Here is the input.
Amino acid sequence: MSTQVYEEVREALHEGRPVVALESTIIAHGLPRPRNLAVAGELEALVRAGGAVPATIAVIDGVAHVGLDERGLARIAEDPAVRKLGHRDLAPALATGATGATTVSATAWLADAAGIRVFATGGLGGVHRQWTETQDESADLRLLSRVGVTVVCAGVKSILDVPATLQRLETLGVTVVGYGTEHFPGFYLASSGEPVDWTLRTPEDVARVIRAQDALGGPRGAMIVANPVPVAEQLDPELHDRILAQGLAAAKEKGITGQAVTPFLLEYLMVHTDGASLEANLAAVRGNVDLGARIASAYAGA
Ligand code: PSU
Ligand code: MN
Here is the structure.
């Protein structure tokens, strides 16, 4: 079999103990080296501090790993040849022996197949601005309509068209709840300004919804738990809007398309905010990973 579930993760799942899946694209393509490796370790430690077992997911030399050891984490963080794999890329990557970091779509797919119910990340992919011209929409959205995973995130990346993304999630039947907020978060910003229909306030509340999904049966689909970055740690909204507008113009001018768009814009923001966007991004991810561990623990404690 070309999927390998790390022993500690396998035992935890077998015994019904909490496990939190973590993606690797944010490590390989979303954060600068060498900070990315430190963050990978820090996120795993946060999951443990929250009482759960971390399972960072990636493909290494044609094997899908659910849970990585230190060598695996270092490979993903340090090897410049690591590809970016959406779920449609998994089969070719396995068959050709490729090495790649998994996006939200590929991570959620592999987590679901391994029986992991909670996944924490930064911000989801979604419908890009200028969608009517480029048709650029992340595969994250559709995949989330097909897996029974709870995804803790700070909304969708603010480089996207947020209202259009929320509309698509509604069409796809993906449950969206705000965590402690009536507004959908804005990734680097605590709020995108868009309302959410449901607000939950504790990990136990979220666990109850997962159990209700279990009891309902029927078509599977993810639940997005949208957890805002604390206001004190958000990016200055005025700076965000100004630099993002510049970044979008630069991407267009340089003809950046496809998989390269998201990493380009994240890096553009980082460079042109003197690292402030990186700090907000990390604050959001840390908060999500911590909450993911507490949700997984609450659900396992049923
Ligand atoms: N969130 C971050 N940094 C990232 C990403 C999300 O804080 O790098 C990644 C995720 O892996 C997500 C991907 O699935 O960006 C979306 O890329 P695209 O828009 O090309 O589908
Ligand atoms: Mn895309």
Residues 136, 138, 261 surround manganese (II) ion (ligand 2) (CB under 6 Å). The mean pLDDT is 96. The two ends are 32 Å apart (CA to CA). Residues 276-300 form the longest helix (25 residues).
